[in-house]
Amino acid sequence: MTREIVMKPFSKCFAGLWLLVGLLFIIGFSISATAQVNTRDIPLTAQPQQRFNIGQDLQPIYEGWVRNDDGTFTFHMGYLNRNYEEQPYVPVGPNNFLSPGPPDQGQPTYFYPRTQRYQFSVTVPADWGPTKELVWQLTHNGSTQYLYAWLQPEWEIDRKNITSILNLQRGRSNDALYADSPSAVTIDPVQPVTLPDTLTLTARVTDDGLPEDLPERQPRRLDPTLQRPDGAPDIPDNIITYSKPMPPRNGLAVQWILYRGPAEVTFDSDEYDEWEEGDEGDGKTAAVFSTTATFTEPGYYVLRAVVSDGMLLTPANIEVTVTAAN
Questions:
Q1: How many domains does the chain have?
Q2: Beta-carbon contacts of residue 127 (< 8 Å; ≥ 6 apart)
Q3: pTM value > 0.90
Q4: Residue 279 pLDDT
């Protein structure tokens, strides 16, 4: 005699409950197992938000090309240092060269962290041709990266492109942009330096007085609930960040940087030095800026003054030879 088993509604619910508990157990076990994976075991390609202070490579950047009035063309270049702290020195040679032509075509040898746009340019003849390439090969930390510059029509740029990328126009009109002329900069000659002596650098700037000044920015107001109370302790920050200084909105200013050299050079300030009342010049058509450079190692250095008139940037270089103490 066959007995038919009929499951009552309560029994069905009870069985379903156990099935749900079992599924949750399996899912929980899977999550727990996943959580035990160490991030160091995950390939770097699967860690897009990972930051590295040291150990990464350098990527040359092709910014685009400009058509010159005499028929020649100028390639503009920069770089990305993928490190947040490491500032490598890669001398001109097998690890840092351009081709065709001489290996030294004005490229940097000292690399600041992160993205550094429009660092140097190379002018090529009018008969360069639409497909011929200028190559910058850069090797660091065992990784070789390349830049290929050629006259791709879509990569033709002008002053508007450059100031937009560098965020320098700041709401000024295109008429004001194209009416402005770059500053003229000269750096006083210097003598060789013997460690531990320092070096005084002086940049003399003249300008057309443009662009016209923008109104001063009003300070941003924070909601009272977002302001830290007086006397609050500093917030600890163990994440190294790098922020490239921005020039002031108005008037003449200069930033001093190391462009080539075997070791870090420190200046009076990493920021732009703004003209102030009482300084030489008027701060719009003329100004003089000085700083002190401090070296730690002997060698050949190229120091750069980056001058801003409030919208356009003009670089000027000075070569310095540093010798060891006697």
A1: 2
A2: none
A3: no
A4: 96
Residue ranges making up the domain that contains 123: 58-157
Q: Tell me, yes or no, whether 129 and 192 share the same domain.
A: no
Could you tell me if 152 and 193 lie in one domain?
A: no
DSSP strands (E only) in the chain: 58-67, 73-81, 96-99, 114-124, 134-140, 143-149, 184-187, 193-194, 199-206, 253-260, 273-274, 286-293, 299-308, 313-323
Question: At 267, which amino acid appears?
Answer: F
Q: Indicate whether 248 and 125 sit together in one domain.
A: no
Whole-number Å distance between alpha carbons of 242 and 209: 32
Q: Please, what is the average pLDDT of the chain?
A: 88
With respect to residue 44, please indicate whether it lies within any of the assigned structural domains. Answer: no
How far apart, in Å, are the Cα atoms of 205 and each of 245, 256, 276, 279? Answer: 20, 14, 14, 13
Tens-place pLDDT, residues 10-58:
444 445 555 555 555 555 544 444 445 454 444 555 555 678 899 999 9
